[in-house]
């Protein structure tokens, strides 16, 4: 009986009143539509295989990619030293050159018979150990200006604005090569909007105008002159020469390895005198070493000399110019000197007010 009703595509249903029967007809089209929908649903079902994963630390669970990266601090002290000039480099220690030898090697590769770029820039690549005083702390990225004894064309447009009072200081700043020098009138022009500070890369000030310069603190923000950045001082000529001819460099930590920092800077061109280039390198290394943390161990780990378009990189010994390990006595002397300089600046500011 049931098969007969199904074949007839009809079903008898009693109404709620219980008096009459009503037939519901199910067409073949509706049945075919249901059949197609069920088949599509079966095809969409995909068996998901759950892979068992070991314990993951809480600070790595949200990372999609967890790649083991090689340590960027190169330590080849365990390798043997080559006994001749022909060897496979990866199996032996890197040869260490003097600065004069490295410059001569680059000059040979840049000779007119080879690359033909005798005035190519000489770049220094300084690798740092950014580990702080504690194991979980690291030195912050920093940007500095290193004063060098022998200037060269660094290819940068550096405009310097100087704030000072007094005719002698103004004239000294102009003679040193400042782009713009002024006092209270200059502060008024900036406040009224007639002059923009964004047109100048460096801002230098004398302590005698510091009280009036406070009105521009909001506009200058981090560029506001201070003794730590060496933009506030009585010797305007020396500061102007440093910021116009010095080496601007920045140290930045690696994204994945926080204890590895890198500095890349140009110290001159290959056609300069080798002694002048070496002195520029020594001044740069000394300036970088002033940012070292108060801990034992190396801060500067490796120094390479490069010169484009050559891919050759030559290792030099930086500890000829800076101390290899942290010297507590030298650090104390430096702190005392900075304290004396800061006190003198405050006294000069108080006298000016």
UniProtKB/TrEMBL annotation:
Keywords: Mitochondrion, Ribonucleoprotein, Ribosomal protein
Keyword ATP-binding found: no
A molecular function (GO) term: RNA binding
GO aspect biological process, one term: translation
Location(s), subcellular: Mitochondrion
Pfam families xrefs: Ribosomal_L1 (PF00687)
Domain of life from the UniProt record: Eukaryota
Cellular component, GO annotation: large ribosomal subunit; mitochondrion
PANTHER family: 54S RIBOSOMAL PROTEIN L1, MITOCHONDRIAL, LARGE RIBOSOMAL SUBUNIT PROTEIN UL1M
Protein's UniProt name: Large ribosomal subunit protein uL1m
Lineage: Eukaryota, Metazoa, Ecdysozoa, Arthropoda, Hexapoda
């Amino acid at each position: 009986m049931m098969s007969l009703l199904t074949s007839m595509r009809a079903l008898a249903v009693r109404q709620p009143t219980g008096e009459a029967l009503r037939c519901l007809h199910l067409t073949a089209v509706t049945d075919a539509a249901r059949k197609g929908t069920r088949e599509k649903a079966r095809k969409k079902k995909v068996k998901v295989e759950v892979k068992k994963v070991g314990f993951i630390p809480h600070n790595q669970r949200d990372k999609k990619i967890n790649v083991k990266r090689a340590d960027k601090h190169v330590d080849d002290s365990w390798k043997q030293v080559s006994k001749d000039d022909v060897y496979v480099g990866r199996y032996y220690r890197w040869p260490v050159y003097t600065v004069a030898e490295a410059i001569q090697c680059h000059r040979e590769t840049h000779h007119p018979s080879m690359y033909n770029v005798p005035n190519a820039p000489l770049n220094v690549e300084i690798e740092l150990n950014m580990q702080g005083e504690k194991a979980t702390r690291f030195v912050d990225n920093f940007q500095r200006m290193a004063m060098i004894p022998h200037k060269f064309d660094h290819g940068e447009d550096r405009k310097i604005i100087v704030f000072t009072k007094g005719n002698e200081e103004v004239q000294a700043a102009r003679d040193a090569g400042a782009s713009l020098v002024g006092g209270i009138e200059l502060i008024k022009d900036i406040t009224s909007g007639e002059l923009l500070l964004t047109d100048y890369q460096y801002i230098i000030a004398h302590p005698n105008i510091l009280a009036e310069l406070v009105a521009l603190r909001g506009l200058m923000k981090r560029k506001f002159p201070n003794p730590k950045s060496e933009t506030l001082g009585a010797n305007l000529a020396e500061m102007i020469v440093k910021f116009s001819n010095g080496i601007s460099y920045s140290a930045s930590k690696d994204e994945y390895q926080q204890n590895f920092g890198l500095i890349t800077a140009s110290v001159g061109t290959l056609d300069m005198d080798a002694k002048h280039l070496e002195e520029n390198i020594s001044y740069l290394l000394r300036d970088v070493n002033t940012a070292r943390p108060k801990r034992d161990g190396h801060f500067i780990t490796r120094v390479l000399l490069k010169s484009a378009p050559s891919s050759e990189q030559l290792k030099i010994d930086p500890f000829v110019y800076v101390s290899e390990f942290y010297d507590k006595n030298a650090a104390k002397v430096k702190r005392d000197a900075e304290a004396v300089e800061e006190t003198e600046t405050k006294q000069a500011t108080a006298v000016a007010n």
